[in-house]
Design brief:
four-stranded antiparallel beta sheet, single chain, mainly beta, 16 strands
Length: about 220
C-alpha cells in the first residue's frame, strides 16, 4: 500500500495505491474517487469496537454508524479519500501505543487497527467538546484529519491546548480540563474558554482551526430556520 497526501494543508486529499488483496477501512462518506473494480462494502466492523454496539458507540462520538470497507480484489487499485471539512491529513503508524482521537479526527485505517469508543469522563463535559473520543489500538496505519493544518507537539512534562484544537494524542498522556489563566472570569471574558492540560511524555496532534468556533461564527450569520 502506497500513500500520497496531496494539496496539503488546506485541502488535503489522500491518494492510496493498493496492491492486490489489500483492504482499507474508512469513515462513511470519505471516498472521493476509486478504481472501478474496487470491492466496496458497508460494515459495522466486527471484533473489538465492531458490531452494532460498536457502531452505536461511534455515533455517540459524532461519527457514522457504519464504516466503509474497500478491497482491491485480484488487481492493483487506487482510491482517493478526503475529510468532510477543509483541512489536513496526517498518517500515524500505530504500534504498541493506543491513540485517542477527537470525534471528527478519524478518517481511515488499515484492518489491523481497532477503533473503539473511549469515555473521557465528566471533565470533558465542561470543555464544550465531545465527552466521547475514539481510541485506536492494535497495529497499522491510521489517517487523521483536521480542520486546517495539523502540527505535532512532543510533550515532555506539561502542555496546554485549547480543547477545540485537539486532533489526537497518545494514550500515555493524561489530561485535565482547566482554565487558561488564574481567573475563571477572565478566561470567559477573554473568549478563551477551557483548555486541556496534558501531562506525561508522548505525542500530541493539534489543528490550526477550531470547528466549534467556526460553526458558531457561521451559524450566527445565517437566517433563523
Amino acid at each position: 500500500m502506497k500513500l500520497d497526501i496531496l494539496h496539503q494543508p488546506d485541502s488535503a486529499i489522500a491518494k492510496i495505491d493498493m496492491a492486490p488483496m489489500e483492504e482499507l477501512i474508512a469513515q462513511a462518506g470519505a471516498m472521493v474517487a476509486m478504481s472501478s473494480h474496487m470491492e466496496v462494502n458497508t460494515t459495522l466492523r466486527q471484533g473489538k469496537g465492531g458490531g452494532v454496539l460498536g457502531g452505536l458507540k461511534r455515533m455517540l462520538a459524532g461519527e457514522s454508524l457504519f464504516l466503509s470497507s474497500f478491497r482491491s480484489g485480484s488487481s492493483p487499485a487506487e482510491i482517493y479519500l478526503a475529510p468532510k471539512l477543509m483541512g489536513d491529513i496526517l498518517p500515524y503508524q500505530l504500534s504498541g501505543t493506543d491513540l485517542v482521537i477527537q470525534a471528527t479526527g478519524y478518517l481511515a485505517c488499515t484492518p489491523g487497527v481497532d477503533i473503539d469508543l473511549g469515555f473521557q469522563g465528566i471533565k470533558s463535559i465542561f470543555s464544550g467538546e465531545s465527552i466521547f473520543w475514539l481510541t485506536a489500538s492494535g497495529s497499522g496505519l491510521v489517517l487523521l484529519s483536521a480542520f486546517g493544518s495539523i502540527y505535532e507537539v512532543q510533550v515532555d512534562g506539561e502542555y496546554i491546548v485549547d480543547t477545540g484544537h485537539i486532533v489526537a494524542f497518545e494514550k500515555q498522556l493524561s489530561f485535565t480540563i482547566t482554565k487558561p489563566g488564574t481567573s475563571w472570569l477572565g478566561a470567559f471574558l477573554g473568549g478563551e474558554g477551557f483548555v486541556c492540560k496534558f501531562q506525561g511524555k508522548g505525542r500530541l496532534f493539534c489543528q490550526t482551526h477550531n470547528p466549534g468556533a467556526f460553526g458558531r461564527l457561521v451559524g450566527s450569520k445565517l437566517p433563523p430556520r
